[in-house]
Amino acid sequence: DAGITQSPRYKITETGRQVTLMCHQTWSHSYMFWYRQDLGHGLRLIYYSAAADITDKGEVPDGYVVSRSKTENFPLTLESATRSQTSVYFCASSESARTGDSYGYTFGSGTRLTVV
Amino acid sequence: AQSVTQLGSHVSVSEGALVLLRCNYSSSVPPYLFWYVQYPNQGLQLLLKYTSAATLVKGINGFEAEFKKSETSFHLTKPSAHMSDAAEYFCAVSASTTILTGGGNKLTFGTGTQLKVEL
Asked: Quick check: B113 and B8 in contact, CB under 8 A?
């Protein structure tokens, strides 16, 4: 099916482990984003990508790594998970590539990550 | 820098009553404004967006929002609340002053308003 898919939906991991969250979109959108959602903070941008092999930091990038070797995939890796990274993670995509464009973002269903 | 402020982290209304969720924005240039809705355990869905074509914007599920430049507001309303409207609502702003690598738009989100609908 077309759309934006995140996996897994739920994940429990231990402190210090590496974990990768997957995101796949079928629209060939230029932009892809990773957000984390926490109570009282709303959505905070972790990393984004403007195209394959072009990534950049958002507001809260520390402890995370991204890559984008193919347009449709944008995995997020927590190199050494900490309890403060317990959160709900959302991937989003947007076709916009022009300044001030009115395109919104399309979101995946999220991954609920618990670090114990 | 652009920003949005959502007044009231929790709003409670009776079924059939007016829904009013407040959003004020800050932007040095004409912004694009969005409202998203998030149902439990789901991602965010676009409700409506303002792109300068008309100040009153109609969205899905009977929601609408009015852009008021003089008040820097973009409040979300619905004349009659339904139980199925219970969700979290996010206001977001995009402006040409906040440019991402590659020249694309950046959305800045508010902290959200949880809407509760009571019988």
From this structure: yes
Residue A84 pLDDT greater than 60, yes or no: yes
Return d(Cα B56, Cα B16) in angstroms, integer: 22
- Looking at CA atoms only, how far is residue B115 from chain A in angstroms? 15
* Nearest Cα residue to B36 out of A7, A107, A58: A107
Q: By mean pLDDT, which of B44-48, B77-81, B87-91 is the weakest?
A: B44-48
What one-character-per-residue DSSP string does B63-105 give?
-EEEEETTTTEEEEEESS--GGG-EEEEEEEE-TTSB-TTS-B
Q: Is the Cβ pair A96, B109 closer than 8 Å?
A: no
pLDDT of amino acid A47: 94
Please check whether residue A88 is in contact with residue A20, taking contact to mean a CB–CB distance below 8 angstroms.
Answer: no
